[in-house]
Amino acid sequence: MHLTNPIRQLAQNSRRLLPMLLLILVGTGAVSITANAAQGIAQYGKPKYADGFAHFDYVNPNAPKGGTLTLPNPGQRTSFDKFNPFTLRGVTAPGIELMFESLAEGSADEVSSIYGLLAEDIAIAPDRLSVTFRIRPEAKFSDGSAVLAADVKHSFDVLMSGLAHPRYKTTFADVKQAVVLSERTVRFDFKNNNTELPIMVGTLPIFSRNWGRRPNGSVIAFDKLAFEAPLGSGTYLIESFKAGKSIVYKRNPHYWANDLSKPLNVRVGFYNFDRVLYKLYGDDAVRLEAFKAGEFDAIVEYRAKIWAKGYVGSKFGEGLLLKKAFQNHNGAGMQGFAMNVRRPLFKDPRVREALGYALDFQWLNRQIFYDQYGRINSYFTNSDLSANFDGPSKPTEAELKLLKPLKTKYPQWVPDAVFGLMPAAPSTASPSSLRQNLRKARELLMHAGWQYRDGALRNEQGEPFRFEIVEDGGFFLRVISSYIRNLEKLGIGVDVRTSDFALHQKRMNEYEFDMTTVRFPDSQNPGNELWDRFGSQAAKEKGSDNVVGIQSPVVDALIDAVTKAQNRDELRAATRALDRVLWNSYYVIPQWYNPTHRVAYRKEMQFPEPPLYYSAEPWIMQNWWKVESK
């Protein structure tokens, strides 16, 4: 899956991050570990790169190594209290993924393929119910110990246990077990034929069995690991840190890939800095001024107004600082105001639909966003997997084959609207208007039992319609204020509560909210992560991505169809059917997206042409380099 970070939800994304697992995925099929093992596999068809390729096309193989990359805190994270990125509680230090690797590496210019990293070859069984990896004999953890099959099994077993973030159990639910075949050979067995599973287990983060082991032989429980240095195989080590304020990573002088007879192709052009320093700022304005003062090298901007008005000054005029909007081809996914349907107030889909009519995107884009954004019209926006990709079309025969039996079996869970034209998000562009939209909202609310009397919108019991919007910072308040003004015209009362990132994360983990902004990560090739995002079981587990609380047998069935798709056509039909059901259930009030990454950087920073699918921060960290001024 290819992740991007439009607008403002990197903080939320980092909260929900499956470190390493949800970076960029890829892979195709080999057959047996002896005769048909390959370095690369693809989910559908063949991988782009043949065995023995020199490097990915989107890197600079001659990029100079050296220097320090200094970055600010990504998103709204203003502190950290642990190094373990795999547990539920706490806030992970930025950049900790630099210390971990997986059996295989995804390619950023393909939809779904992987190539051996710790593993030298990969083989998918003829029945596709297992995949086998053979680990490179040179692969070492940062303490010099060998990466063995037992470590891979240990990593999988721990992540599937109750000690790790519960998301792993949901995401890897179709993986039966990891089996050690020999010292350096490990096999993953699957419960069913899911074409994504070999890709998923190939990108599983691997860590040593000795992480957390004390000198006396006792072991710290995995969920208690905090500032114990991770024991991974990655390019970097922690050099120093100031708790919650900064952290410095240095290149491991004994990094295992340095000892190979020839450069490791999936690492050529990657990680060009000797050190990576993160500085955490408590205020967005301070962070911007620190960049202008030269305190760090690059910054990714998610706010349209700041991009338009803030990145100015003498250093920009002199060319010492530069700004550029980099195009990407990432699917934009879904970003919007999510309603917690665990709350009785949001149970009725007519109520949820009505609330969507009060958001005036056209006014926001014109008055606040400087016309930089497009409207989200799908859960798979900017992708051919979207039911709106070809405009407001009706379901295809392939989609109807999925939807009709579900409508018969679960009529209350399949809105009638899914069989018509896929509707766009409410618009105030002429001939529509906010006034007309609010009338539609009022009619929907009336049919749902809400009427205006005694100065407020009330139900039959006389209770006012009132809810709370929670956010992890104040920078979104201008948007929320506009939305609230329109809701007040309907007689709806809204309270707003902002908090720091850590407290907001805790509330999200416990689902203690009425409405909040969500950003569901983009994916060119959605699969098992949808169980965690929309699946019924995930809605019952704390800390899942299913913050909305969706528990629908129809959604579950369509996710199952997505994960079992055998080719791109089947995947497209399943995602579009799922899109229609989610969209017409009105769980999220869609917001907007930007098809570019907005990056400001010092003139010393250099970069290759960006790949097709990428997130800005990882691209900077992985593929940029620095040429010091003379």
UniProtKB/TrEMBL annotation:
The molecular function GO annotations come to: peptide transmembrane transporter activity
Every Solute-binding protein family domain range: 114-537
Q: Which residues form a coiled coil?
A: none
Q: Which InterPro entries match?
A: Peptide/Ni-bd (IPR030678), SBP_5 (IPR039424), SBP_5_dom (IPR000914)
Q: Which Pfam families match?
A: SBP_bac_5
Q: Name one GO cellular component term.
A: outer membrane-bounded periplasmic space
Q: Name one GO biological process term.
A: microcin transport
Tell me the keywords, alphabetical order. Answer: Signal
Q: What is this protein called?
A: Microcin C transport system substrate-binding protein
Q: What is the lineage of its organism?
A: Bacteria, Pseudomonadati, Pseudomonadota, Betaproteobacteria, Burkholderiales
